[in-house]
Design goal:
about 300 residues; alpha/beta; 5-stranded mixed sheet; 12 helices; elongated
Length: about 300
C-alpha cells in the first residue's frame, strides 16, 4: 500500500471518528467504480471499524481493502450476492442482532443500484434494524454530472439499468424507452454493447451520451445520436471494451406554433393590458418578447 493511502486512513479516522456509528446496524458502503482514489474518508473508517464485511465477491473485496491497508480475518467475511441474497440476509440479521456492525459493499459503486444489496437492505429494515448509507461513487451520477442537460429538460431522470439480453425482449424495452420523454440512464456490459447500440438505433436522432470506463485511465464520454451510436462504437476497437453507462436524453418538446401563440395572446389580452399579456406569454412560451409584442399589435388591430 502506498504512503498516500496510509495518510488517507489517518485522515479518515481523524475526520470520521467523531460521528457515532451504532452497533447492530448495516452500513451500505459505496466503493470506487474504477479509480481507487474515489473512496470517501467515512467509508474507509467504517470498513476498518465493522465487525463483518458482507460483499458481492469476497476475493475482489479483500483485494480492494488491502489496497487501503485494511485487513479482516476470514471469520469477518460474508458473501452476499444475487444468487444467495435472501438466505445470506438472515445471517446478516443474526449478526446484527448480536450487536455487530456489518458493512456491505458490491464489486463497484453504490450497492443496491443495479447491484445486489436492495433485498438485503429491505430485509434488514423489515427486521426492525437500522440501515445507514455511506454514499460515494456511482456510474449513474458520474455520467449524469458530465453529460449535461438540454435547456428544455427539467423533468429529472429515470434509472433503467440493464436491458434484457434476449433480442425480442430488448426490442420491446427500447420501444418503451422511445415512449418515455424523460432522460433515462442505462448500464451495459462490454460483450453486449454492440447489440444494445444496434437496438437503440430505432430512436433515430435522439441524443445519447455514452460513458466508457468511467473514472479509469481510458475514460471516454461522447454524445451522439442514437442512430449513430453503432458507428461510433465501430470507429475504434477500444470502444467495445470496458463497462458502459448511457444516458438517453430527454425527448425534445416540439415548439409551439404561431397559431398556438396567437391563441395564447388573444386569451391573455382579454384579461390583461397588452404589455402585461405579452410579458406573460413570453414567460410561458419562451419566445422573444419583441416578436410577441409585434404579433399582439397585429391581433389587436384585427390582423
Amino acid at each position: 500500500m502506498s504512503a498516500n493511502f496510509d495518510s488517507a486512513l489517518i485522515a479518515a479516522n481523524a475526520a470520521a471518528a467523531g460521528q457515532h456509528y451504532p452497533s447492530g446496524a448495516l452500513y451500505v458502503v459505496a466503493t470506487p467504480i474504477g479509480n481507487l482514489a474515489d473512496i470517501s474518508l467515512r467509508a474507509l473508517h467504517v470498513l476498518g471499524l465493522c465487525d463483518t464485511l458482507a460483499c458481492e465477491d469476497t476475493r475482489h473485496s479483500q483485494t480492494l481493502l488491502r489496497a487501503y491497508g485494511i485487513d479482516k480475518s476470514s471469520a469477518q467475511w460474508l458473501a452476499v450476492h444475487q444468487h444467495n441474497e435472501a438466505e445470506a440476509a438472515q445471517e446478516v440479521i443474526r449478526r446484527l442482532q448480536a450487536g455487530q456492525r456489518v458493512a456491505y459493499v458490491s464489486d463497484a459503486g453504490t450497492p443496491a443500484v443495479s447491484d445486489p444489496g436492495a433485498r438485503l437492505a429491505w430485509q434488514v429494515q423489515s427486521a426492525g434494524l437500522r440501515v445507514m448509507p455511506m454514499p460515494g461513487a456511482s456510474s449513474v451520477t458520474a455520467l449524469l454530472s458530465a453529460c449535461g442537460t438540454p435547456a428544455h429538460d427539467s423533468s429529472g431522470f429515470v434509472f433503467v439499468g440493464f436491458l434484457p439480453s434476449k433480442t425480442t425482449e430488448r426490442a420491446h424495452a427500447v420501444e418503451a424507452l422511445g415512449q418515455e420523454p424523460r432522460t433515462q440512464v442505462l448500464l451495459e456490459a462490454p460483450h453486449r454493447m454492440e447489440a444494445l447500440a444496434a437496438a437503440l438505433g430505432v430512436l433515430g436522432r435522439r441524443p445519447v451520451t455514452v460513458g466508457r470506463e468511467l473514472t479509469k485511465q481510458f475514460e471516454e464520454i461522447a454524445t451522439v445520436t442514437a442512430e449513430d451510436l453503432s458507428a461510433w462504437l465501430q470507429a475504434s476497437t477500444q470502444r467495445t471494451r470496458g463497462e458502459f453507462a448511457l444516458v438517453v436524453h430527454a425527448q425534445a418538446q416540439e415548439r409551439a406554433t404561431g397559431t398556438d401563440h396567437d391563441r395564447m395572446l388573444q386569451i391573455l389580452m382579454q384579461e390583461l393590458p397588452l404589455k402585461t399579456a405579452v410579458k406573460v406569454a413570453a414567460e410561458l412560451s419562451g419566445e422573444a418578447k419583441n416578436a410577441l409584442y409585434d404579433r399582439a399589435l397585429l391581433l389587436k388591430d384585427g390582423g
